[in-house]
Amino acid sequence: ASPTVSEARRKELWWCYSQSAAGVFAGDAAFFMQEWDARDRLASLDSSACPVHLFAGEYDYSRPPDRVRQTAARIPGATFTQLPGCGHFPMVEDPEQVKQHLLPILSSASG
Question: pTM score, two decimals?
Answer without folding.
Answer: 0.78
